[in-house]
Specification:
The protein is mainly α and 610 residues long. Helix content is 64%, strand content 1%. It binds zinc ion (ZN).
Amino acid sequence: MVQAAMLPRSAIATEHTWDMASVFPSAQAWDAAFKEVEAQLADLGRFKGSLDNGPPRLAEWFDAYQRAFRALGHVMIYANMGHTADTTDQEAAARFDRARGLMARATGAAAFADPEIVAIGFQALRGWVREDSRLAMYAHYLDRLERRQPHVRTAEVEELLGYVLDPFRTASATHGVLADADLTFGPAHATGSTEPVDVMQGNLSRLQTDPDREIRRTAWESYADAHLANKNAMANCIAAGVKQDVFMARSRRYGSSLEAALLPNHIPVDVFHNLIAVFRRNLPTWHRYWRVRRRALGYDRLFPYDRSASLGATKPKVPFAQSVEWICQGMQPLGDEYASIMRRGLLEQRWVDVYPNKGKRSGAFSAGSQGTHPFILMSYTDDIFSMSTLAHEIGHSMHSYYSWKTQPFIYARYPLFLAEVASNFNQAMVRAHLLATNTDPDVQLAVLEEAMSNFYRYFFVMPTLARFELETHQRVERGEALTARSLIDLTAQLLTEGYGGEVEVDHDRIGIMWAEFPTHLYMNFYVFQYSTGISGAHALAERVLAGTPGAVDSYLAFLKAGGSKLPLDALQDAGVDLSTPEPVERAFAILARTVDRLDLLLAKRSGKPS
Ligand SMILES: [Zn+2]
């Protein structure tokens, strides 16, 4: 297999890159803005000790705070864009590092505010909100603060907890450096060939879909073995990350790190536990999927490296312009306004950094800040998978677009619990559109394979990692040690249950999976929200596709609500109640129907009954 050499960043046509100049025209302009933000942060200090002076002072503080942080957002996104588009660019890396430091300083500089506001007393504050119309919009913020009150520490402690965030990133950063810079992967090889095939972070998922099983096996083993060779250092990173979560939870007087993750957003811990329970109840669907896959591939035994093997001989080619077309058609039920904003962003305003280049960060994300465009980084490769990734990321972007446009800065960001709803909603809509309208059997199969791959990540890997997180945090909370061996054994045990005897167990190589997630496992119970997010997304997409009266309007209102409502309330208003396990059950039913459909299509293609 010959790979085209990766192009340097400078060789990518401007029209396929994101529009950094729309944020700042030059690095010099960024520098000037950086200094301006520093001055604004220093100026915030003059409010210290005076927030209780009366409503005008508090309103003035909120204004100054939002101005500084809004400007900081622009400094951050520009630095982030430069660095992630080309991590080999040293100047961009330096800007990114400085911006991150500035963010930590800002968090520290504003940390006195919440304790001071709490000290005013909420009864008095409610009077102020009625009295001074400039404070009216902060009623929700103050409500949330009131509920968080037992966990807000003194100004001094809060300042310290703010400053500690930057050094606390070291554990995850070190894990990332090990994974991205220091790991060396042995080469893979094709059946009957000794010619080495390079294995890299950036090409592993493609090698895992290769029709040649020997390439898949050798690449998968090489990837796992490289992580196993670094298992002790990586386990140390994970242990440090978990201890930091426990430290933060205890500093804020939460009963556990799980509570510290959920209670600030008023999500009962049952939402987490229910998700895990529904996942375990539905494992037989996964076991059936492995069987369908094994039969389709014609194997006696299915190995972990067969999980992503392509089931179709011909992969439909989907150029970027075709993707944009399909996504716009799929999202048309939301109306002309939504579709035209999205189309303009994708085709004219350069929201997307489309193609891979040397040094570009792998994976995909949507980012930005109120007052900038939403921006998407990805490595588009002309296939259905890339199309679906684009649909996913533009879902995030449109959520940001509407939130930023509708809400004041303080509510402009949507809560993390809602993050994966809008993205998966778009994927669900575009898939449904293609399955209903595109009669090309290759496209049908590719869409179903992509759907299963997405479900695999969100509804198998993420709940498994969530169980891993719960167990590791509880162990540290009980004062037990986390070692490489114990982490490998735990992961292998969870995956063995998930495989249900349908996938072969290679104990240490599957057990090292935790080491392959250098960011997700450092976010204190973030990963389960992928599963709740995809559940909410499918429930809302079903309403829109079924033509439920009011479904489109309530969905658009959801996008516009940003952080102005508690996450469960925002979902409730949009039409799905995630405080109960029911939507998760329904999403697993959709997964089961997708497996049925795949099974049927494969049987038709092979001409054999399934
Ligand atoms: Zn996402």
